[in-house]
Amino acid sequence: MVDFTLWDILRNLLLAARWTLLLSLIAFVGGGVVGLALLVLRLAGRPGTGRIVGAYVQLFQGTPLLMQLFLLYFGLALAGLNTSAWLAAAVALTLYASAYLTEIWRGCVAAIPRGQWEASASLALSFGQQLRHVILPQALRIAVAPTVGFLVQVVKATALASVIGFVELTKAGGLIANVSYEPLLTYGCVALLYFAICFPISQLARLLERTLR
Amino acid sequence: MSATLQAAPAPTAGPVPRGDAGAHTQVGAPILRITALRKSYGAHEVLKGIDLDVARGEVVAIIGKSGSGKSTLLRCINGLEVFQQGSLIVDGRHLLHDNPKAMRELRQGVGMIFQSFNLFPHLTVGQNVMLAPHLVKRRGRAQNAERARALLARVGLSEKFDAMPDKLSGGQQQRVAIARALAMDPAIMLCDEITSALDPELVGEVLRVVESLADEGMTLLMVTHEMSFARKVADRVIFMHQGLVHEMGPPETIFGAPQTPELRQFLGLMEGSAA
Amino acid sequence: MSFDFLSILAQWPLLLRGAAWTIGLTALATLFGATLAVAGAWARSQGPRPLGWLVGAYVELIRNTPFIVQLFFIFFGLPELGIRLSPGVASVCAMTINLGAYATEILRAGIEATPRGQIEAAQSLALSRTQIFLHVVLPPALKTVWPALVSQIVIVMLGSAVCSQISTEELSYATNLIQSRNFRAFEAYIVGTLGYLGLAILLRHLLNWAGPRFLFGR
């Protein structure tokens, strides 16, 4: 048995944390792009498309992320794609983030007074112009804080990628706990590392909420 | 009506009542005695040494400009505001801020009605009236309900027992607030500008209830902008100015023959705004 | 490619058992978590200062770490201290602690929105601090934050899927068991996922119905 020092544990966890950060970033950015597209679809489209996007959101918010991950993992394999845990996790988390972000942003757009739509429409702006020049700039201001806040949720969500075998912070913690026979210390360190990533983002979101209101 | 609503006979000979007190006054210890009371917010002194005795059954109106300290004085009497110096005795009980038990005993004897009604929005009208007697006085369920119904009838709202507060007009809400305060059988009632938040047409119904309380011998201390009401109902009027009792006397004197230029100016302003 | 859902649905007793576990875990966690949250919100808004800070630290710690790590810490970590919990108990503990933190913060927001006049009216009616909190402050606060609280309870229910990782026999565990028997993984997870969706909708309706009736009046 190898003796693990605290530094050994921490060093290995820190290395694994890079993957947590990378996966978070991919899911957040990917989710943002998809989410924005869904938002425009929802605002512009006929009632039909709006309802479909609504159902999409309900589906992702009404089922466990864990099940979504498994579904994608096995679904991609079924579709003949060479599935890696890495790909399944990235896709699943992107879709998951897109559903939440599109819903957050829809709320921000809905918070813009009706009069703004009416005023810009009466100035003969097209729908695209209304969005681009009048609505989104105002909505963006309210959206910043909850969006940053959601990043915390994404970072925590990446921990579930460990379940399908992707070696990020949580999975690395499990592996180290098994070989070091120090599960308490290891999982304590894992938790603290997550805290070290998430807490500053939470505080930033709180600060933004105060200053941008 | 409950026994406490009637002026209690004086058990012992107390200090001689003030000469300027009105018809309700009976011989006995003052129900409220305020001595050299000072209160400040930080460096700003709001009350600069108030001395005031109120006899049992007396109706006292406090008038004055906003910022003169009249609401603060009222709020000191049941400990909603903490004062730094002086003493305050209600019905023989010293007001002790840092003793929660003593505060609760004192508050049982002091009813308060607020400008903004402050009914509990999640409780029905009946539950609003019954909450404190149930929790504090441990009054039995049946007796409590019976009493609440009687009090609501007393303020003309017997049919609203099961209504939610937000379904009532402002005047009705304020009358419920009066019934709620009465349910604790207070020895003295504090009214803090209770008609200021009401639409003009609703003021009358609330003032009529207050007047009937005065007629039944309830000790009343009210901060008010309703000068004609003060003149009609009060035994004594106190004019506060810059944190002090500036002038005090029977309504005829205060309104008919004001002594100080400040009071004259204040009454002139009130008349001007009323016109 | 062909799908075979019938062979999954044929395993309905397993699925039902799993769903029952999920419901049970959620019910217990909601009960304990909500109680914890009421105490936590009280401590945060009007309790003694040091206790307020302690609760604040607990809330931040839980909200900024993943649930699965909390669960593993309790199930794999605590035995090192001699605290050995069965999967079911560890799951309820983790869910309770998790919900408690989020709900504390939600409730606190509702409590701090109480108009000052409400409290003054209650004070002038001689109610004690505890009575004011329980009878005047808490019910309207619960009513205000109930939608947020319901969402959080649903999130915790969905999150409980992770408890299968410590072999708690709830719905996702049952799903995994079925797919390991008949190798119809995709179909199994479709059925399991729809099961969760159904439970989430049911739970939301139940709580929206029950809250006004039993907790805070009309």
What's the gist of this structure?
Chain A has 213 residues and is mainly alpha-helical. Helices cover 82% and strands 0% of the residues of chain A. Chain A is flat, with a radius of gyration of 21 Å.
What do you see in this structure?
The complex is a heterotrimer of chains A (213), B (275) and C (218). With 213 residues, chain A is mainly alpha-helical. Chain A has one domain: MetI-like (MetI-like fold), CATH 1.10.3720. Chain A contains eight helices and no strands. In chain B, a hairpin with a 2-residue loop joins strand 1 and strand 2. The N terminus of chain B is likely disordered. With 218 residues, chain C is mainly alpha-helical. Chain C has one domain: MetI-like (MetI-like fold, Orthogonal Bundle). The chains are: A mainly alpha (213), B alpha/beta (275), C mainly alpha (218). Chains in contact: A-C, B-C. Chain A: One of its GO terms (molecular function) is transmembrane transporter activity. Chain A: It comes from Methylobacterium gregans.
Write the layout of secondary structure elements.
The complex is a heterotrimer of chains A (213), B (275) and C (218).
Chain A (H helix, E strand, L loop, with lengths): L5 H39 L2 H15 L3 H14 L6 H26 L3 H9 L4 H31 L11 H12 L2 H29 L2
Helix pairs in contact in A: 1-2, 1-4, 1-6, 1-7, 1-8, 2-4, 3-4, 4-6, 5-6, 6-8, 7-8
Chain B lengths: L31 E10 L2 E11 L4 E5 L6 H8 L7 E6 L2 E2 L5 H9 L1 E4 L11 H11 L5 H14 L15 H13 L5 E5 L7 H16 L3 E5 L3 H7 L2 E6 L2 E6 L1 H6 L4 H14 L1
Parallel strand pairs in B: 3-8, 3-9, 6-7, 7-8
Antiparallel strand pairs in B: 1-2, 1-4, 4-5, 9-10
Chain C lengths: L5 H4 L2 H35 L2 H15 L3 H11 L9 H26 L3 H9 L4 H31 L11 H12 L2 H31 L3
